[in-house]
Automatic annotation (TrEMBL):
Residues 205-492 form the Hydantoinase A/oxoprolinase domain. One of its GO terms (cellular component) is cytosol. Residues 506-677 form the Acetophenone carboxylase-like C-terminal domain. It comes from Albimonas pacifica. This is N-methylhydantoinase A. Residues 4-183 form the Hydantoinase/oxoprolinase N-terminal domain. One of its GO terms (molecular function) is 5-oxoprolinase (ATP-hydrolyzing) activity. GO terms for biological process: glutathione metabolic process.
Length: 690
């Protein structure tokens, strides 16, 4: 079976075509087209098929990681959005909770107030009320819903979020309101909170639904446009989109629930990193994905990645109640711009040169110094071998823009370039600490899996800051996220609020609810073409002590729930609570939400054939003069430059050295060493600071 993975980044669109049975792959990169990413995607898949000698009609699946939803939120560039909610609750998404983003700041940004997803004039209220446990206190005022829909349509609203109290217990009012709105305002994107996130916590549920509406038209149009263009180009394959939960979803599902794709690309990167680590028997990894505009950090423990808790899931400061892999993203990448701020401070990022104009080295009009320009100025990127020789770098342009900054700072060009890298590496190291040290994990117990176009170039410096002993560079670092797209399964999630305590647990009622959810997921997977043998289901719950504000996720057994199974679940929660908080208490335990994940098994990506290897003599391209900091001073050192595909296997290579390949460059500092192993990875032993 032939699969294409396409990951759209800030600077480049990465592509891979794999034959699942043989594990053979063809990789390609094209510039991202920010004005319409589907143009770059279409160009890339066409060229990729030509490189691989494959007809478009022979491709079975196209799997896509997209940043369309993420960028719409980060840039606050979504649809004009309206909301219909209960009388008296117009301002739930403005008020939020008593917690502030920064508890002690009197001049802080509160995202949902400073840049609301739904402006107040577009929030309409109607009569009707559902109350626990799903009882109708007052009927829905259907005439008011119709009037609100007409007013919003006349005001130019493009999307409407319908958010009623307790709709997670009874969605009938929301469903009826949606039907009325669609009849009164055809063509407007309409979404309901009971579809997007049927669980308690009004502020988070309403905000998540508003976000789904805010990004809905843009994502829907993008997916539709991409499907049409692929079809016109001769592709008959199904288009699947990576979700934030680490699984693929159909284009139809994503068009209805685009909020599921907010971490689409980064999620694929963690999966690709875990897959590559397993090739060398490494199952405890810190994934370090550095692209043109951002760096994404994830944790893999014993081959599995964690899902973010409700208190940790947010995008651009907005809370999001949607299943997401635990990923931390910062604005630090190859295109991050170095500058002096208004207070005279030296900063790197989060502003980025992006794909256009990009770093000065790309020769597309960039005039500000970036991380890439700093590396070029120090000789750490080979201008003759960038993108496998497909693109040349303008060394003089990089030296010029870095030199201009050096004059402002009163430093030498090399000291300035090294300073740019020192700042961005420190920012990246702090991001890793936030996902390890601050969560009670020792980063020294992990390997740093470095990928993305910039990861292998920065990894040894970041690892040295953190005391991490090993850096792993996967076979195709620049397209590891694209590989991750081809190594995942179809995944759908359902959640229902239960509110059951250990004092009054009805195991049979819980089992009935879980079975109902599982049947719904089975039906959805069957509609996607999966047989019962290709499906599996995972159950879990969100538990807390009665009176607590947040929950811990606990796995449920796959077998039917009974009293012993419930005892085991409560014991698991108690142990998790002890590990997380260092204590337990005597309050009853409460199951707040129950969850079921349905997984449809996609074709398995086989382990690729072991690289043939070569010799150091055939691998060496030439020597370069590269600047390193040695004993506190910048020193130019004669450094060999090797072609990765010709490196001998299981042979120790001492630093300094550069390892080039089409999609990235890996660096060894003086004191570092490297071995190319039979799994296709580069294993770098990092020299630690005295």
């Amino acid at each position: 079976m032939k699969l294409i993975g396409v990951d759209v980044g800030g600077t480049f669109t990465d592509l891979v075509l794999v034959e699942t049975e043989s594990g053979e792959s063809t990789v390609h990169k094209v510039p991202t087209t920010p004005h319409d990413p589907s143009e770059g995607v279409l160009t890339g898949v066409r060229e990729l098929c030509e490189l691989a000698g494959v007809q478009p009609s022979a491709v079975d699946h196209v799997l896509h990681g997209t940043t369309t939803a993420t960028n719409a939120v980060l840039e606050h560039d979504g649809a004009v959005t309206g909301m219909i909610t209960n009388e008296g609750f117009r301002d739930v998404i403005h008020i939020g909770r008593h917690q502030r983003p920064e508890h002690y700041s009197i001049r802080q940004e509160v995202p949902w107030q400073d840049r609301p997803l739904v402006k107040r004039r577009y929030r309409k209220t109607v009569g009707g009320r559902i109350a626990p446990p799903g009882v109708e206190l007052a009927p829905l005022d259907e005439a008011a819903v119709a009037q609100a829909a007409r007013e919003l349509a006349e005001a130019g609203v493009e999307a409407i979020a319908i958010c009623f109290l307790f709709s997670y217990l009874d969605p009938s009012h929301e469903a009826r309101a949606k039907a009325i709105v669609e009849a009164e305002a055809p063509g407007i994107f309409v979404t309901t909170s009971s579809t997007v996130s049927p669980q308690f916590r009004e502020f988070e549920r309403f905000t998540t639904t508003a976000m789904n509406a805010f990004i809905g038209p843009k994502v829907r149009d993008y997916v539709s446009r991409l499907e049409t263009r692929l079809s016109e180009a001769g592709f008959e394959a199904d288009l699947h989109i990576m979700g934030s939960n680490g699984g693929a979803a159909t284009a139809r599902m994503v068009s209805e629930l685009p909020v599921l794709t907010l971490l689409s690309g980064p999620a694929a990167g963690i999966i690709g990193g875990a897959w590559a680590g397993a090739l060398s028997g490494r199952n405890n990894l810190i994934t370090f994905d550095v692209g043109g505009t951002s760096a994404d950090i994830g944790i893999v423990r014993e081959g599995a990645f964690a899902e973010a808790s409700a208190r940790d899931t947010s995008i651009a400061g907005f809370p999001v109640l949607a299943p997401m892999i635990d990923i931390h993203t910062i604005g630090a990448g190859g295109g991050s711009i170095a500058h002096v701020d208004a207070a005279g401070g030296f900063k790197v990022g989060p502003r980025s040169a992006g794909a256009v104009p990009g770093p000065a080295a790309y020769g597309r009009g960039g005039t500000q110094p970036t991380v890439t320009d700093a590396n070029v100025a120090l000789g750490r990127l080979d201008p003759r071998a960038f993108l496998g020789g497909a693109m040349s770098l303008d060394v003089e342009a990089s030296r010029r823009v870095v030199g201009e900054l050096a004059e402002t700072l009163g430093m030498s060009l090399e000291e300035t370039a090294d300073g740019i890298l020192a700042v961005v590496n420190a920012n990246m190291a702090n991001a890793v600490r936030s996902r390890t040290v601050q969560k009670g994990l020792d980063p020294r117990a992990f390997s740093l899996m470095a990928f993305g176009g910039g990861g292998p170039l920065q990894a040894v410096d970041v690892a040295a800051i953190l005391g991490i002993p090993e850096v792993i560079v996967p076979p195709a670092p620049g397209i590891t996220s694209a590989v991750g797209l081809t190594a995942t399964d179809m995944k759908y999630d359902l959640v229902r609020t239960a509110f059951v305590t250990s004092a009054d647990t009805d195991a049979a009622a819980l089992e009935s609810l879980l079975a109902e959810m599982q049947a719904e997921l089975a039906s959805r997977l069957a509609a996607d073409g999966f047989s019962p043998e290709e499906m599996r289901f995972e159950r879990a719950g969100d538990l807390r002590y009665v009176g607590q504000g947040y929950e811990l996720r606990c796995a449920f057994p796959g077998s039917a729930l009974d009293a012993p199974a419930m005892d085991a679940i409560y014991a698991d929660f108690t142990e998790q609570h002890r590990r997380e908080y260092g204590r337990i208490n005597d309050n009853p335990i409460e199951i707040v939400n129950v969850r079921v994940r349905g997984v449809g098994a996609m074709p398995v990506l086989e382990k690729p054939a072991a690289p043939s290897g070569g010799s150091l003599e055939t691998a060496k391209l030439h020597d370069a003069e590269i600047a390193f900091r040695v004993d506190g001073a910048m020193t130019r050192m004669t450094t060999p430059v090797y072609r990765r595909d010709r490196l001998p296997l299981d042979t120790v290579i001492e630093g300094p050295a550069l390892i080039t390949q089409k999609d990235t460059t890996s660096m060894l500092r003086p004191g570092d060493s490297l071995v190319a192993d039979a799994g296709g990875n580069l294993l770098i032993r990092v020299a630690q600071k005295g």
